[in-house]
Amino acid sequence: MAEPVTTLRDASQSAFAALPANAQRSALDIEYRWLNAHLADAPLAVFLHEGLGSVAMWKDWPQTLCERLAMRGLVYSRPGYGRSTPRPRDVKLPVDFMSVQARDVLPALLDALDVNAAERKRMWVIGHSDGGSITLLYAAAFPDALAGAVVIAPHVFVEDISVDSIAEAKTAYEQADLRSKLARHHDDVDSAFYGWNDIWLSNAFRSWQIIDELDCIRCPLLAVQGNDDHYGTMAQIDTIAQRAAQTQLTKLDHCGHSPHRDAPHVLNDAIAAFVGKHTRSALS
């Protein structure tokens, strides 16, 4: 059962870590929603959205998966997205913006929502696309602060196919109907779109990679990708498996960049089997 969407006033201001040190910082509103909050003793699944995502853009998939897993859930919109505080127009995301989200923003949000250390040890983090990369970075930075991770179409380095598709998205946003579609899900749609699009298309970002960080991940890790993904190739999750030997790969036929939309039943089966296996082994 999904709780109403709520906003959290983040007095720590950590989510604007990307702002210059001399910039004026104000408190942030973070949009979030609890799922199955009545399951007080159940493990928590935290969902990290894609580069243009939000609480609303997940639709009902997190709820469906939480019911399948008998878990509580937490979905939230990162600063700049959904109903959370927009990115200031004069602030560009830094090359390490995903590291900032993993290292600073997610831990601060969990602190503000009173998710304690014991709950975090049982927590699963599930991320899609940029959210998948943030999931990997969180698992690397806090190896004892989660039970396991699921990454769906993550990025660990920049490929030409990603840049080409993101450039096409800019054309669709400025010349077609992508802006009007996204505007339904973001209070400041330009903040959401250009924050993501500008950094991914910048020359500085072409050398971004998080391959070395993968060596630090110790938790069970499921990496999922569709064979028809136009934002990345199988080299992304193959690289993860090469550096984190405990990784299980799931490669989906007839599936694009968003398996939770293109193949939700197959994806849910894969996640449920993986989580169930590692939950049983943890109890044995």
UniProtKB/TrEMBL annotation:
One of its GO terms (cellular component) is membrane. It comes from the Bacteria. One of its GO terms (molecular function) is hydrolase activity. Residues 46-270 form the AB hydrolase-1 domain. Keywords: Hydrolase. Gene3D superfamilies: alpha/beta hydrolase. This is Alpha/beta hydrolase. It comes from Paraburkholderia azotifigens.
